[in-house]
Amino acid sequence: MAGNKSYTIVEYFGGDDGYRCGYCKNEKGNFSHGMWSHTMTVQDYQDLIDRGWRRSGKYVYKPIMNKTCCPQYTIRCHAVKFQPSKSHKKILKKMSKFISKGELPTGQDDGEPMDSVCEEAGPREPSKVSHAEVKCPVVTDIQKEVAECPAITGVQKEVADAVPTGSEMPRNDPVSVPDGRTTATPPKPGMGADPSRPPCRKAKDLRKERRIQKEQMRQHADGVSSIVSPTPSTPTQTNQPKNLEDFINESLPDNSSHCLEFRRFLCDSPLEAEYSPDGPEVGYGSFHQQYWLDGRIVAVGVIDILPTCVSSVYLYYHPEFASMSLGSYSALREIAFTRHLQKQSPKLSYYYLGFYIHSCPKMRYKGQYRPSDLLCPETYVWVPIERCLPQLENSRYARFNQDPDAGDARALKDVGRALVLYRRAVMPYAAYSRKRKSSSDETEVQQYAGLVGQDCAERILLYRA
Fold first, then answer.
1. DSSP code of residue 123
2. pTM value?
3. Pairing mode, strands 425-428 and 138-139
4. Local structure of 330: helix, strand or coil
5. 77 in helix, strand or coil?
6. Does residue 388 or residue 120 have the better pLDDT?
């Protein structure tokens, strides 16, 4: 068992001290629990982020939601059901225009924010754990007291959407008056609409007619003899809304001035690379997604591929292309990539965007990727974001689960079952506490176990020096 099993090994740091907030700049307002991950399995990290944790390198942290100045709610998008909004389509069209015609948008950066992890809130120096302790823990006989627990697999967007125009009303012709001013001819009472003028038509009807005319001209050029009816009796394929992949493919034309390529590589992280027969072909773990433009890297995104999701970690890009909304564009590409992986592994169907911070207006853009859910900070159930927003308008911190009697269903009831790594031996905390009768860390272990939940506490090894 010891030779084949992979373990997650962490050191818990607590969460008593306040640090500078990267969002509101409060010098002591950011509170979070933290732990250092020496190594971590993808399933353990999946379970951790489903309880509000998030990694920054090997440091894994969980905001203290009812205490921190800017509560950070875990957000996930239903990738399979995602439909791009008008602002998303605008970004893809902007990329298409640049790739096909070489026209770089002018103007300033659109101000896409990146997820902020405070430098001051970083981890303390982890204890010196030997390579042998991390890689080769010994499962002692005393661990047999623990029952086996199956693994559970469970940048600011542009929002200036075009405002729809109303009916196009013909203006009356102005006539001259003696003082040089102009005035509109008053309508003749009782005459009704002017029969000499065409009837008013709505803008959407005019646009529809132009679209039909273009379709007829295209079909005529292609030798198609069928006539397009202005009001088809049955829906046709051309009337179906385009999906995300359609827009992305349009943004990468074959005959273009520039060439945009994508390459994917495994990258260094605490997550252990894993492969599963029912998993995606690329496997699980952390990956670099490189964006190559005409032979040079212009952006690099880091993602974690986990059992039920693709989790976006961060993106950095060349400042020369800041006007291309690469943060938003990369998110759309990652959603499309999640949809691709879901075809290989049906349970991998979510795209995690990190944290949604309603109290920081610049970070609300993540809520535009719909449909999406926010994680209840008390019961750890997912709630549609539409139901959460009214509560967040009234209070920075909110419990989204409407059932007042609901609690944490995966809480660890017996802290003695939490696993620890002590002197290269894996044992439940109950056994460890008997060996270390003078130990005074039970309160810390109880806090840690409550934060990670039953599944992780009974699988993850908590390092004890």
1. P
2. 0.76
3. parallel
4. helix
5. strand
6. 388
